[in-house]
Amino acid sequence: MEYRCVKCGFRIKTLFVQYSPGNIRLMKCENCRAVADEYIECEIMILLIDLILHKPQAYRHLLYNVLNSETVNLQMLKDVVLGNVMFLGVFLHASRILLNTSAGASRFKDFLLAVLISSYFKIFLLAMMVWNFPSSVIYIIDLFVLSSNTVALKVITESAMNRILGVCLVAHAVKFFVVQGLELRYLRY
Ligand SMILES: [Zn+2]
């Protein structure tokens, strides 16, 4: 498996040599002579900030040196996508029924925008795929997304709070059971 120098993108066999636990030496790039990937020793927040700042080095680190076909379970990615498609479908459908809103194209776009914007907490799930956090963090993130979706929907529809909470809970519950169902399937095979 090959890695890349985050500065110039040159291929490199290993990014660091480990002498003992916690004692590593970062490798230098043969092409540009810089440390190939200094993010290995950085805090997660520094990487996140550099990603937000659109620094190519941060993206090279994430795409080539962290997220590659060997470390990311592609089946998990498919489940995440499927779970989110189900969520969006149920969310839009339940919004229409429970909130008595018309299904016009512009209204649809409003809902889509609200749910996407208010799901920004999911960016932390990306961090979870890369670094090992306790799985309880997933539920905390889900709760934040749920409450954030609720506020966004309330602002857009100005409907009663219990109806909005109903829509969000139904959508999140469906997603939850879809994901749980898929995980059970793995246990069987
Ligand atoms: Zn280089």
From TrEMBL:
<comment type="function">
    <text>Mediator of sterol homeostasis involved in sterol uptake, trafficking and distribution into membranes.</text>
</comment>
<dbReference type="InterPro" id="IPR007290">
    <property type="entry name" value="Arv1"/>
</dbReference>
<dbReference type="GO" id="GO:0032366">
    <property type="term" value="P:intracellular sterol transport"/>
</dbReference>
<dbReference type="GO" id="GO:0016125">
    <property type="term" value="P:sterol metabolic process"/>
</dbReference>
<protein>
    <recommendedName>
        <fullName>Protein ARV</fullName>
    </recommendedName>
</protein>
<dbReference type="GO" id="GO:0032541">
    <property type="term" value="C:cortical endoplasmic reticulum"/>
</dbReference>
<keyword id="KW-0256">Endoplasmic reticulum</keyword>
<dbReference type="GO" id="GO:0005789">
    <property type="term" value="C:endoplasmic reticulum membrane"/>
</dbReference>
<dbReference type="GO" id="GO:0006665">
    <property type="term" value="P:sphingolipid metabolic process"/>
</dbReference>
<keyword id="KW-0813">Transport</keyword>
<dbReference type="GO" id="GO:0005794">
    <property type="term" value="C:Golgi apparatus"/>
</dbReference>
<keyword id="KW-0443">Lipid metabolism</keyword>
<keyword id="KW-1133">Transmembrane helix</keyword>
<feature type="transmembrane region" description="Helical">
    <location>
        <begin position="137"/>
        <end position="157"/>
    </location>
</feature>
<dbReference type="Pfam" id="PF04161">
    <property type="entry name" value="Arv1"/>
</dbReference>
<feature type="transmembrane region" description="Helical">
    <location>
        <begin position="80"/>
        <end position="99"/>
    </location>
</feature>
<keyword id="KW-0812">Transmembrane</keyword>
<feature type="transmembrane region" description="Helical">
    <location>
        <begin position="111"/>
        <end position="131"/>
    </location>
</feature>
<comment type="similarity">
    <text>Belongs to the ARV1 family.</text>
</comment>
<dbReference type="GO" id="GO:0097036">
    <property type="term" value="P:regulation of plasma membrane sterol distribution"/>
</dbReference>
<keyword id="KW-0746">Sphingolipid metabolism</keyword>
<keyword id="KW-0445">Lipid transport</keyword>
<keyword id="KW-0472">Membrane</keyword>
<comment type="function">
    <text>Regulates also the sphingolipid metabolism.</text>
</comment>
